[in-house]
Amino acid sequence: MFNLKRTSIIVLLLIGFGLSVELCRIYYNANFNPYALDSFCSINNLIDCDGVAKTNFAQFAGIPLCLWGIFFYSFSLLLLASPALSKFKLLKFLEVFKNPISYVFCLSLLAFVISMCLACISIFAIKKICVLCFATYFVDLAVALVARHYKEPWYYEIKQSFGDFKSAVSNRNYLIAFIAVVIGFLGVLTYTANSYVLAPQLKPIDLSHSKEVKYTMKDNIMGKPTAKRIYGLQLRFLLYDKYFAQKDYERTRQCCGYPTQPAA
User: Fold this and answer.
1) Minimal CA–CA distance to 40: which of 123, 134, 130?
2) pTM (2 decimals)?
3) What b/e sequence results for 116-143 when a residue is b if at least 16 CB atoms lie within 10 Å of its CB, and e otherwise?
4) φ, ψ for residue 227, nearest 5 deg
5) Nearest-CA neighbor of 141 among 239, 12, 31?
6) pLDDT tens per residue, the chain (264 residues)?
7) What region does 255 belong to: left with phi over 0, alpha with psi -120 to 50, or beta?
8) 3-state secondary structure the chain
């Protein structure tokens, strides 16, 4: 029975890992690949994975939620494999995870609570539903339900995991290692949140290098008599659009058998 439970959890975690990988593919195609086709789960205005992926809610601390999912499922699989991996000398420290299934239950329960918050944001704030995202929410719930010890109170796994953690940090070496991991983790979050290295589409546009020219317009009925014209990124975007429009115009005339002429 224990082996069946363990195998079932591993299968569910692998399914969640696969869904997270596919969500990463959808996320980066939606945000960075202008030639990508709509994903299979972008059906209409409500069922739209691409639309959800393009919102600011699709990342946390500068890290896409799909990468958080990959980290969660990978770490949970590592916990389940810790009894076997701890037999190797270099991985002996994994022996601190005495009850890995209890840890997986706690993490899955926490993931499901967060998932319900994300589901509410998706329905009420974004007003779009990502089918694959909701599939991972059900996977998180299924993992928690399978990992639970039903002969014990519902808080049994939480109490057991806390006791194991308290016993582990009582060792000075493990305590120092834990503090180092937490500091490193917070450092990574600070870097990703401020550098936008994993979510560059959210990085604010810097117009500090743009040239600003003030001039007075005569008969300016569209705005104030004193207006500003900004050259820089906007001008380059306009030039790029005109360049590609000219190329498309020439290719169209060639296909129709007309001599190429400059677009008006």
Assistant:
1) 130
2) 0.73
3) eebeeebeeebebbbbbbbebbebbbbb
4) -125, 170
5) 12
6) 457 888 999 999 999 999 999 999 999 998 888 888 888 888 888 999 989 998 889 999 889 999 999 999 999 999 898 888 888 878 777 778 888 888 999 999 999 999 999 999 999 999 999 999 999 999 999 999 999 888 888 788 888 888 888 888 888 888 888 899 899 999 999 998 888 888 877 777 665 555 554 554 454 455 555 544 444 444 444 544 555 556 566 666 666 666 555 544
7) alpha
8) CHHHHHHHHHHHHHHHHHHHHHHHHHHHHHHHCCCCCCCCCECCCCEEHHHHHCCHHHEECCEEHHHHHHHHHHHHHHHHHHHHHCCCHHHHHHHHCCCHHHHHHHHHHHHHHHHHHHHHHHHHHHCCECHHHHHHHHHHHHHHHHHCCCCCCCCHHHHHHHHHHHHHHCCHHHHHHHHHHHHHHHHHHHHHHHHCCCCHHHCCCCCCCCEEEEEECCCCCCCCCEEEEEECHHHHHHHHHHHHHHHHHHHHHHHCCCCCCCCC
